[in-house]
């Protein structure tokens, strides 16, 4: 039975990040290390915004053309993951996050995942279950009041429907 990776990641990754802080802090100083961590978080937010809007635009264009949006969805997920990794404090996660922001790396990951993923189109979900008849009512034809003293016509009391 294989060892689950999640506990290993939650134990090893923080230890590696702490070691990275100690090494970088001993070389450039504590304030510069803190500045780098803050700068990487700001950079992650900026890159996430810029590349995220670009991916949303390409996703919309692909959908408008009737194409399969799998590539753009995977790229969008990887950009979100990259932004999250840059936002987390630590130099190891920053390096992985910056690498994920590179389009050639995302394309390589897409080529790897394309054979293993299948995108299902659910845009037609629920079609055909509703009647195509539309009832257009004026303001005087419908009321939500439960007061029976008003004698305005209501859709509930109209025998035609």
From TrEMBL:
The keyword Transferase does not apply. It comes from the Bacteria. Keywords: Membrane, Transmembrane, Transmembrane helix. Pfam families: FxsA. GO terms for cellular component: membrane. The chain crosses the membrane at residues 6-24, 31-56, 76-102. The keyword Hydrolase does not apply. This is UPF0716 protein FxsA. It comes from Aquamicrobium aerolatum DSM 21857. The lineage of its organism: Bacteria, Pseudomonadati, Pseudomonadota, Alphaproteobacteria, Hyphomicrobiales.
């Amino acid at each position: 039975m294989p060892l689950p990776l999640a506990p290993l990641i939650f134990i090893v990754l923080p230890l590696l990040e702490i070691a990275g802080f100690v090494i970088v802090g001993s070389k450039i100083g504590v304030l510069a290390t803190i500045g780098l961590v803050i700068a990487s978080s700001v950079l992650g937010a900026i890159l996430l915004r810029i590349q995220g809007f670009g991916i949303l635009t390409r996703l919309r264009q692909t959908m408008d053309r009737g194409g399969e949006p799998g590539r753009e969805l995977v790229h969008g997920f990887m950009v979100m993951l990259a932004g999250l990794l840059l936002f987390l404090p630590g130099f190891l996660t920053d390096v992985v996050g910056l690498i994920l922001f590179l389009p050639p790396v995302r394309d390589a990951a897409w080529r790897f995942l394309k054979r293993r993923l299948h995108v299902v189109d659910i845009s037609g979900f629920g079609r055909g279950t509703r009647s195509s008849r539309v009832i257009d009512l004026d303001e005087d034809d419908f009321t939500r009041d439960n007061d029976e003293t008003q004698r305005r016509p209501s859709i509930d009391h109209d025998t035609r429907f």
